[in-house]
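Hey, resending since the last one bounced:
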Amino acid sequence: MRDRTWIAAACVGESLCVRVQGDDVQRRIGAGKPEQMLVEMLGSYLRDDVVLPVVFAGRDPLRLAKVPAVPPATLTPLPDIDPRIVLLGLDGLAQIRPADILGGEAAQVAGFVAAYPEWDGVLCLTGPSSKWVHISAGEVVSFQSFMTGEIFAALAGQSVLRKALEGDGWDEAAFTEALSDAMSRPERVAGQLFSLHASERLTGHDPAIARARLSGMLTGMEMAAARPYWLGRDVAVIGEGAQYEAALRAQGVPVDVHDAVALAFRGLELAYTAQGER
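The structure tokens again:
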């Protein structure tokens, strides 16, 4: 038996976000498989006599359309994870040169294009791996991913910089200075990283300054590499990316900021509706 309730689930950044009609959004961060986390999060909604459709924007879609292409609105049945659930995965996008994949983020792109059909510019999707996506005439023309957030996390947790970065806080001036330096001379960053460790050993460096400097260095390298995307174009930042907004505004680039979860759910709703019409 099926009822009319359906569930939207999307991997957004490091979170799995779930929305059941009429209820608030649930968020969970975890190291496990999103599909297993999904079953746990939906426990109170599942019944043995009802099969619920779950429209899912996962990190690794089964099917990928090659760009240029319109943002995906097609769903592919995924392997069973629970007899009370029918899991439908939103398709993603692929780029051959340079090789790249737009997985669950495709839902955010689809939601944005539906909301702004005349948009011609670039989306900066934030997260552990950021995505710069060129949109024109309602199509994804090209995109490029950067592992800036993952590199920061790896250096902060598993490198000689670990002690220098322990603690909280933020120093905006240190971020801005490091960002500017890295954008001007990105080739110098690798040689400047160790100075964060050396400063901590020699002068008791402030962790807030160290964290801001590291973020500025890594973001500056990304901004320099992504210059063909943002230079001379309108840019929309999607998600929690204050450092990207600050970096773009420092270059005189007009920026709009949008909620990633809301756009992802909009994209999933469009796909589910389109499936019902086919």
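The chain has two domains: 7-93+102-116+260-277, 146-257.

Sorry for the duplicate.
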